[in-house]
């Protein structure tokens, strides 16, 4: 822990570049001190005691500096000129107590300037150069006049200015490179983020289209099977029907007539069932047209009742007569109600209640399928419409996903309300505006709108 007073002299942590520059400065100072001791004790004559005292003070300063650096801090970071002034004084004193103007310690000014340039702005470096020149100038004022005093003084000052310019230019180049690298790094991170978002999006799209394909394949297989059964059962059925009609024409007795009527009734039922199966399993049309809510619900329920358990549920449809027509793909809209009713059948037990309703809501028609079944755990509700989400042993998790896609493609929305253990209601909101516009347009263009549509 740093002393609170010392902490105020340095920011919490230095930037990477500042710390790298500080590392160089600390090393230069330690080397300077070692060389200083050698010069003081083995070099030209001077005041040995004074020189050693000054160097020991230098060791203290550098030790504090190093301690800050080890804690990733820069000593006196916000007060660089204090350091410059101390160094100018320190070097001036070393020169003074050594041999004066021509002391080898005068080259320490150059090191001080280089340290300053790599850490601070060129402005600070030039001010430091001024402080060093002042320090050296003071030395000149105290120096005994010698023949070489003026040339040495002038040459040293020129060297100081030269070193300041060169070191500042190189430091500026270094800092600019660092800034460019930082900007490039930022751009790279940003690009990486964008790339990751794009990959996530593409993966989701791929998953959704895979789910769509899987569902279509399932429906196609089901359609093929249903058409096959209808064909196989249809032919013998026609033969039976022909035989019954033939017997009826032979003026049978009362008992036989009643029984034949019974058979005819059952035959009609089977034929209706087959017709519904065939209608439902015909290749899905994607032609948009005017669609009646009543027809859609009737067709969907007509098929759903053959689903396992469908007959044991109490399925009620409440459709007002005055509902406006919708514009959409009839087969797809049938599928919406069909899937919702199948889910409701799965969620309810024997005798369970399923209510299919429709009502106008302003510019929309709302269809709802409510059941008094298991209900849905609130924790899983946000995942219901994702592909492959299922809680059923044999489920595909595609029903609600397909519903949402169909409804959204029709400009509508779907939502769920559910209470665990009490039941679930799915609400599908579809716009009627299109249908009204369509009929208005049809009026204008005398029946030529909605090309290729089937208007029921
Ligand atoms: P699947 O029916 O193949 O599981 P769906 O996408 O149709 O796929 O349904 C996903 C899940 O939503 C179901 O597994 C079930 O947990 C839940 N779910 C849908 N409808 C109902 C409902 N009416 N009551 C309770 N849970 C339902």
Descriptive overview:
The chain has twelve helices and seven strands. By secondary structure, it is of the alpha+beta class. It folds into three domains: about 140 residues, no CATH class; about 70 residues, Orthogonal Bundle (Helix Hairpins), CATH 1.10.287; about 170 residues, Histidine kinase-like ATPase, C-terminal domain (Heat Shock Protein 90). Strand 4 and strand 5 form a beta hairpin. The longest helix has about 100 residues. The two termini are about 85 Å apart. The N terminus and C terminus are likely disordered.
Which characteristics define this entry?
456 residues, alpha+beta, Helix Hairpins, Heat Shock Protein 90, 5-stranded mixed sheet, 10% strand, binds adenosine-5'-diphosphate
Q: How many β-strands, per DSSP?
A: 7
Cα(first) to Cα(last) distance is 85 Å
CATH topological fold name of the largest domain:
Heat Shock Protein 90
Low-pLDDT runs of 5+ residues are 1-12, 438-456
Write out the distinct hetero groups bound to the structure.
adenosine-5'-diphosphate
**Main CATH class of the largest domain:** Alpha Beta
Mean model confidence by pLDDT: 85
User: Structural class, from helix and strand content?
Assistant: alpha+beta
The CATH superfamily of the largest domain is known as Histidine kinase-like ATPase, C-terminal domain
Order of helices and strands: HHHHHHHHEHEEHEEHEEH
Report strand order across the widest sheet: 2-4-5-7-6
Number of helices: 12
Q: Major β-sheet, in short?
A: 5 strands, mixed
**Percent of residues in beta strands:** 5-15%
Q: Domains counted in the coordinates: how many?
A: 3
């Amino acid at each position: 822990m740093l002393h609170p007073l010392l902490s105020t002299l340095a920011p919490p942590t230095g930037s990477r570049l500042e710390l790298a520059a500080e590392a160089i400065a600390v090393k230069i100072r330690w080397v300077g001190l070692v060389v200083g001791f050698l010069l003081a004790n083995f070099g030209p004559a001077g005041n040995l005691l004074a020189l050693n005292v000054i160097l020991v003070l230098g060791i203290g300063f550098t030790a504090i500096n190093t301690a800050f650096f080890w804690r990733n801090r820069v000593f006196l970071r916000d007060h660089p000129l204090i350091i410059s002034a101390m160094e100018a004084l320190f070097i001036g004193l070393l020169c003074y107590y050594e041999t004066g103007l021509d002391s080898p310690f005068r080259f320490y000014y150059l090191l001080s300037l280089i340290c300053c340039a790599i850490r601070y702005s060129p402005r600070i470096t030039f001010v430091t150069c001024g402080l060093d020149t002042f320090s050296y100038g003071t030395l000149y004022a105290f120096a005994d006049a010698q023949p070489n005093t003026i040339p040495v003084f002038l040459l040293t000052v020129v060297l100081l200015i030269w070193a300041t310019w060169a070191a500042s230019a190189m430091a500026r180049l270094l800092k600019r490179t660092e800034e460019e690298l930082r900007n490039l790094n930022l751009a790279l991170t940003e690009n990486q983020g964008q790339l990751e978002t794009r990959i996530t999006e593409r993966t989701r799209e791929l998953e959704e289209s895979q789910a769509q394909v899987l569902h279509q394949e399932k429906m196609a297989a089901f359609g093929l099977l249903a058409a096959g059964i209808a064909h196989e059962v249809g032919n013998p059925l026609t033969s039976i029907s022909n035989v019954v009609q033939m017997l009826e024409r032979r003026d049978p007795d009362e008992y036989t007539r009643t029984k034949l009527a019974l058979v005819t009734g059952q035959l009609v039922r089977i034929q209706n069932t087959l017709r519904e199966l065939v209608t439902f399993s015909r290749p899905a049309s994607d032609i948009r047209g005017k669609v009646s809510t009543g027809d859609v619900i009737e067709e969907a329920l007509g098929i759903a009742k053959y689903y396992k358990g469908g007959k044991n549920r109490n399925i009620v449809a409440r459709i007002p007569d005055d509902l406006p027509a919708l514009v959409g793909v009839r087969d797809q809209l049938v599928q919406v109600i069909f899937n919702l009713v199948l889910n409701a059948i799965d969620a309810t037990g024997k005798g369970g209640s399923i209510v299919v309703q429709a009502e106008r809501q302003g510019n929309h028609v709302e269809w709802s399928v409510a059941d008094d079944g298991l209900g849905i755990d609130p924790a899983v509700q946000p995942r219901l419409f994702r592909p492959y989400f299922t809680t059923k042993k044999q489920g595909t998790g595609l029903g609600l996903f397909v519903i949402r896609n169909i409804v959204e493609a029709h400009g509508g929305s779907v939502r769920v309300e559910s209470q665990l253990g009490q039941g679930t209601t799915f609400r599908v909101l579809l716009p009627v505006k299109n249908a009204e516009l369509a009929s208005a347009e049809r009026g204008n263009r005398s029946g030529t709108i909605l090309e290729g549509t089937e208007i029921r």
